[in-house]
Write a structure and sequence with these properties.
485 residues; Rossmann fold; 5-stranded mixed beta sheet; 4-stranded antiparallel beta sheet; 18 strands; binds adenosine-5'-triphosphate
């Protein structure tokens, strides 16, 4: 025992004095002079992390007794009393998800974090499981973890939100005059779209989970041949579209913890959140309960039903939602899944060579930061101008983490973080929809692409959107950066 601490022998470092502070342990060499060279000023002290924060400790074991408590740090770790639900997609990426889970599972065991593991057997398995799970059972989980790629995460996100996100839809296409004229109708028919007039009653105030959505059984990924990868339509689960059911979990008021152990082909969400495409890093971050808010985009596609009603199909995206080029690349790439990650390059080239452009009408929330992109004053509902003619790229919006990319944008004369927060507030409280139409190479909404400086600028995730009319709305951390190419 030494004044102010205990002397321990540490492998590779020798004797150290260990003292306990409020937030962690301090380690100081007992004989620092032994590490100094007599004849030079070079210090030969071995590398020693002189501080260990309690919040970085994920388990404690006594050599002879094994784990002594668990989970070790209930303040930062997963709550610990309940399980976390883990979905493993055995076929994703290079087929290493099961192996990756087997590598990290002992870390969860060691930290006494209980897991309930489901290995998915088909596309839609995770979605169905979560969408049909009674709220009381969902709430009993401390979180849900995907061992897979962006597509599996996307299923989990949609399974959790589909019947539980309660928010008004953005304005209908009717509100933008989309279906107003027969000319529009002819144009749509030429483009292979199903055109019919909406019923007069606006669905602006409808909430997901109420009756009209029950009629929509369109798969998200529409292909002429079944790929086995279609995500089931909303509300195709056992959970009925009921009014009056007392939901215990309701977004955006509630929050829920999600994790990804990267095992996919592109892992865009992991790259733009943790920045490390490494299963062990992700597992440790999950066990330690490190968290960050995730921007989620709600994508509403309005489509005519057989009864000529225009009904919304709602999906949620956490990285990127794309229509046009990107949508087609993703759709095409499903046919070449056997190629592994190279399928994206291959189908990207194939689709590029087709040199198509896509008819689109886009509605988006105008923010002060995106003014260079936003429509001019005459571009209101009655007088749209094609956005293609605007060459300027939108200015970056500063993200919450104030990453390198955003910092750079702000120092080059852009809005400060405070101004950005103010503009977010204005948009949330006072949304002003702008719309425009034209032919585009692609229309996409990047949700979290600036979270991490290492993330590629344009992220492509599994946002399978077929031709149709899209409304994009950010439900958390608005504003949503919307890019038009
Ligand atoms: N057992 C399964 N068999 C077939 N498809 C599955 C299975 N489990 C999930 N899927 C589907 O496979 C799709 C792709 O999965 P995932 O995104 O995890 O892998 P990936 O495409 O290789 O990775 P990334 O999205 O990072 O490119 C998902 O959209 C999901 O619906």
């Amino acid at each position: 025992m030494q004044d102010g601490g205990e002397v321990l022998f540490l492998d590779g470092a020798g004797e150290v004095i260990v003292s306990i502070g409020r937030n962690g342990l301090s380690l100081d060499p007992l004989h620092p002079e032994l590490f100094s060279s007599c004849w030079s000023s070079i210090t030969l002290q071995p590398k020693l992390d002189s501080k260990i924060k309690f919040s970085d400790v994920y388990a404690i074991e006594l050599l002879d007794k094994g784990p002594i408590c668990g989970p070790w740090n209930t303040r930062t770790a997963f709550q610990g009393n309940n399980d976390i639900e883990v979905f493993v997609h055995p076929l994703c990426g290079k087929g290493r998800a099961v192996e990756n889970w087997e590598t990290v599972a002992p870390l969860f065991d060691r930290a006494k974090v209980k897991t309930k593991v489901i290995v998915t057997e088909r596309a839609g398995h995770a979605y169905d499981t979560l969408a049909s799970l009674p709220d009381i059972e969902l709430k009993a989980f401390d979180g849900v973890v995907a061992v897979g790629g962006d597509g599996l995460f996307n299923e989990i996100l949609n399974g959790i939100l589909s019947s539980r996100h309660k928010a008004p839809y953005p304005p209908t296409p009717e509100g933008f005059g989309y279906f107003e004229s027969s000319e529009n109708c002819e144009e749509q028919t030429r483009n292979g779209l199903n055109c019919s007039m909406p019923t007069p009653d606006s669905v602006n105030t409808m909430f997901p989970g109420n009756s009209s959505k029950c009629d929509d059984h369109e798969p998200l990924l529409s292909t002429s041949q079944p790929t086995g990868l279609e995500i089931p339509s909303l509300n195709s689960s056992k959970e009925p579209c009921v009014g009056g059911q007392d939901h215990l979990v309701s977004f955006p008021d509630d929050w829920f913890r999600l994790g990804i152990i990267p095992s996919g082909s592109t892992d865009a969400i992991v790259l733009s959140t943790t920045g490390e495409r490494d299963p062990v890093t992700s597992a440790l971050l999950i066990i330690l309960g490190r968290r960050m808010s995730l921007d989620i985009a709600q994508v509403v596609r309005w489509k005519s039903s057989p009864t000529a009603e225009v009904l919304p199909t709602v999906r949620y995206a956490a990285s990127f939602a794309g229509y046009g080029f990107y949508g087609e690349v993703i759709r095409e790439s499903e046919n070449y899944r056997w190629m592994g990650p190279a399928r994206y390059d291959f189908s990207g080239t194939m689709v590029f060579l087709k040199h198509r452009s896509y008819e689109a009408k886009v509605a988006f929330l105008e923010t002060p930061n995106t003014h260079s992109l936003a429509a001019s004053e005459e571009d209101d509902v009655t007088g749209a101008q094609p956005l293609q003619s605007r060459q300027k790229r939108p200015r970056k919006i500063i993200c919450r983490t104030n990453c390198f990319v955003c910092k750079e944008a702000s120092t080059s004369g852009q809005n400060s973080e405070d101004e950005n927060a103010d503009s977010s507030r204005t948009i949330c409280e006072n949304p002003k929809w702008v719309w425009s139409k034209g032919r585009f190479l692609s229309v996409g909404a990047a949700v979290i692409s600036c979270r991490n400086e290492r993330a590629p600028d344009g992220l492509v995730a599994d946002a399978h959107l077929s031709d149709g009319f899209l409304h994009l709305l950010l439900i958390r951390d608005c504003p949503l950066p919307l890019y038009l190419w």
